[in-house]
Amino acid sequence: MAPVEQDALAVREQLFHERVRECIICALLFASLYILCHFIITHFKKHTDFTAVHDDEDAAVNRIALGLCTFTLAVALGAVLLLPFSIISNEVLLSFPQNYYIQWLNGSLIHGLWNLVFLFSNMSLVFLMPFAYFFTESEGFAGCKKGIMARVYETSVVLLLLTLLVLGMVWVASAIVGNDAASRQSLYDLWEYYLPYLYSCISLFGVLLLLLCTPFGLSTMFTVTGKLLVKPRLLEDLDEQLSCTRFEEAAVSHRIRSGKASCWLNLDMEMLREQFFAIRSKRKKLELRHRASPWQRNLGYPLAMLGLLALTGISVLIVCFHVLELLLDDAAMPRGIQDASLGQVSFSIFGSFGAALQVVLIFYLMLSSVVGFYSSPLFTRLLPERQDTPLTKIIGNCVSLLVLSSALPVFSRTLGITRFDLLGDFGRFNWLGNFYIVFLYNMGFAGLTTLCLVKRVSWAVQAELIRAFGLHKLPLPVTRCRTRSKPC
Fold first, then answer.
1. In this structure, how many other beta carbons lie within 10 angstroms of the beta carbon of residue 2?
2. How far apart are CA 158 and CA 334, in angstroms?
3. How far is CA 191 from CA 95, 169, 202, 338, 429, in A?
4. How far apart are CA 372 and CA 366, in angstroms?
5. Which of 5, 206, 248, 470 could, after both became Cys, cross-link 403 (CB 3.0–4.6 A)?
6. Which residue has the higher pLDDT, 310 or 304?
7. Please, what is the Cα angle at 306 between 300 and 308, to 5 degrees?
């Protein structure tokens, strides 16, 4: 064999081994996410929906739908980890460029992960989750033999009709937006035009949902932190309050146990019970604060609040700086690239520290968006409950989390949280090149976040000062307005 042929064969063997290695790594990562998501869904699902005691067919249908939900949730978790994993991989390659054990961490692997997440997100949103919902609601066509296949046939027909309806709406919308010959010609390409355009609309909706939920979630996290941690109180005698509460609880409990009303008051026993439970709840909270160590009471809560304030303030500053960049430099616009050049330059001017800060901010914004999503009045009913979440609610939660998580890379790049450009089909969204949309989006995020932060912090400080100085115990002032003839 000639040396040229040997070299070509060696190159082909190397490419084959790299492709096999990438497939194995992707399979292991997705299998780990799938197992983790299976335990999460099992923790929340309602057991009565998956038992095989009464109907084996319904139990099998529920198990199939559960598997599809687990797959979708694994894709959502992979979309959340996609951008942080890419940033960390770039910094690792920069720190250890010649290390033999990390040569598998290359641009081809990262690019493949982005493409897989994009493909699986499309599959889950367009096919798997609608199929899971219609499959659980189906009973088979009238006159056909009952069974699993009858439900599959009915679900497939309904899903086909829904697909035709959605594609028709996308066709009409795209024909209205682009009326030139090139746009009309691209309408007939399903894979290269329809699905990216549809996913672009879904991503735009997810990014707008993140814009609305994240500031509200940041404000809610301050309240949740105050409830979970023990707050330090100014000018407060905790022992005296606990003693008074215990005496009050004992007095109300004695009156309830006596079982009869006073000789001069007609007491309502139901009102006494409500008062007793309220006093007991207050006593338990005081005991919890009393058992907390001085470090936990005086250091834990302030550090947590300062951490939330710091992360929120840094996010707002980064977005404001990105707004200035948008006005001065066109390169600040989010864009997509087809080749991931990892290990060449850091995506932060502060090096590894800046990259770590970007990863922390991405996770923080995603967490705040999820908190804001479930705290909003429109989506409060979707909040899962431990061991008591029906299958339809699990499907709704998986779809919602996938929409939020798949929009996270676009959300982070649009706000300038990271400089890591969007890979694969994530960078093909048409609205990313619109300066006005990106500029108004950054301004909206900075304005809403600042407003929620100032409002929450100012109210919390005002309420704490009023409580510390005992002003909340004062009677409300009586305001009077005088007219020409008499006061009112």
1. 7
2. 38
3. 40, 16, 16, 18, 15
4. 10
5. 206
6. 310
7. 105
Read off the amino acid at residue 137.
E
Q: What tokens appear for 367 in the block?
A: 């967490």
Distance CA 326, CA 316 (A): 15
Paired tokens of 271 = 């009102």
299 or 70, which is more confident? 70
Structure tokens at 411: 């959300």
Q: Is the pLDDT of residue 473 over 60?
A: no
Containing 423, the helix (H) or strand (E) segment is strand 422-423
Q: What pLDDT, on a 0 to 100 scale, did the predictor assign at position 483? A: 45
The tokens describing 122, both together, are 């499309």
Q: How far apart are the first and last CA of the chain?
A: 109
- The whole-angstrom separation of Cα 425 and Cα 192 is 10
pLDDT band at 261 (very low <50, low <70, confident <90, very high): very low
Cβ 73 vs Cβ 38: under 8 Å: no
Q: How confident is the model at residue 295 (pLDDT cuts 50, 70, 90)?
A: low
pLDDT category of residue 150 using cuts at 50, 70 and 90: confident
| Contacts within 8 Å (CB) and 24+ apart, 188-195 | 194/167, 194/170, 195/122, 195/126
Contacts of 151 (CB under 8 A, 6+ apart): 61, 135, 138, 139, 140
Confidence grade of residue 33 (pLDDT, cut at 50, 70, 90): very high
Alpha carbon distance 125, 79 (integer Å): 13
- Residue 94 neighbours by CB under 8 Å, 6+ apart: 343, 344, 345, 346, 352
Q: Is 208 exposed, middle or buried (0-12, 13-18, 19+ CB in 10 A)?
A: middle
Q: CA gyration radius for the chain?
A: 29
- Average pLDDT, integer, range 89-110: 83
Residue with token string 């690019």:
111
pLDDT band at 78 (very low <50, low <70, confident <90, very high): very high
Cite the beta strand spans of 108-218 per DSSP E.
none
CB 443 within 8 A of CB 245: no
Whether 398 and 129 have beta carbons less than 8 Å apart is answered as yes
Joined together, the tokens standing for residue 106 give 């290359």
Q: Which amino acid is at 2?
A: A
Token digits of residue 254: 């004695």
Give, in order, the Cα–Cα distances in Å from 165 to each of 121, 140, 156. 20, 22, 14
Q: What is the mean pLDDT of the chain?
A: 78
What is the structure's pLDDT at 487?
45
Tell me the backbone φ, ψ of residue 45, rounded to 5 degrees.
-70, 155
In the numeric block, the tokens 């299958």 are attached to 391
pLDDT: which is higher, 158 or 144 = 158
CA distance 206 to 409: 11
How many Cα atoms sit within 13 Å of 269 on the Cβ side? 7
